[in-house]
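quick one, two chains, predict together pls
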Amino acid sequence: MFRRLAFLTVCLSILLAGFAVPAQKRSYKRSSDAAKPIATVTPIDTERLKSLLKRDSQRPLLVNFWATWCDPCRDEFPDLVKIDAEFRPKGLDFIAISLDDLKDINTEVPKFLRAMNAQMPVYLLNVPDPEVPITAVDAQWSGALPATFLYDATGNIAYKHFGRIAPEELRAAIEKQVGAKQ
Amino acid sequence: MMKKQNAVSLLLAALFVIAAVAIAGSGRIVGNDVPAPPAIGATIEDFTLPDTDSKDRTLNSIKGSKGTVLIFISVQCPVSNAYNERMEKLAEDYKAKGINVIGVNANNTEPVDAVKAHASEKHLTFPILKDPGNKLADRLGAQFTPESYVLDANNKLVYHGRIDNSRDASQVNSSELREALDALLAGKPVAKTTSKAFGCTIKRA
């Protein structure tokens, strides 16, 4: 009887732990001894975006579209910062494209990036019509944020995810590209 | 006896694990899992939703004689809020022509009191319906705020997409929603029946 109770207690604990994990609040505070974060965000138009995506560095490229007003974008950003730190030395390029208002380029956007201790290059898409770049990136993309694309070393989309990323799934996709390059 | 107890324990443990996986899975955030929108030309069935006074309204009781615009809107979304004045102007401009604008708030995070206060503060005078459980948003495949749907006098969908090309009113050079309404009023086919809406994602239940 005691064994049975103990066994059930363990199972219940596992179950409760499983519920507790998604409820954890993420902290946006950056660590005090981290490297100096980026200070500027560069405005770009659709043509510049296309050239960024079609560069010929022969390295896989991760691109995250986001905005400070997008809650799931904010929620996933700490994971993206970790992935950037983990894979950049292994050969991954990573750029973040903000779809915030141009008026926020020197205020809300860099403020959030500093809080995240983000190190990747960040651009702000300053276009009169967001449908044009959205369709140019991927005709299947509705424009919902966040959206994350992984390009292989030849510039083709190897992986994409709409909505908040699943970090381990993204890591696995990156590993394939980084591994393929090495 | 002990074997039987162990078997019961294992069975219960298995049930716990299955329940945990099922519940955790149901709460997972998955990208792009919104139902597909109805096709252009499809008839939108009448529906009943509560307004900001929690009174039930049907589509057919508040639709316009010549057409209806449904716009999914938000209290907090800055993109939706950038359109407040334009949406109010649209409602004023077309009401006299027989087309009614109806706002729909399907955000699970925005209670009806907040929706009512927001409408008052932003001077939105067109009716706003609350969509609890985002049932209408699911039926229409709505993803964003703002996102608009134009129905003709018979509730047939004739346009679905953005209001115009820019959240910044000074940058607008393409007004798909107004063009669709003008075509509808003129008895002409809508030239551009769909466009990509852009804004905050609807916070589903």
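Strands of chain A lie at 42-44, 61-66, 93-98, 122-125, 147-151, 157-162.
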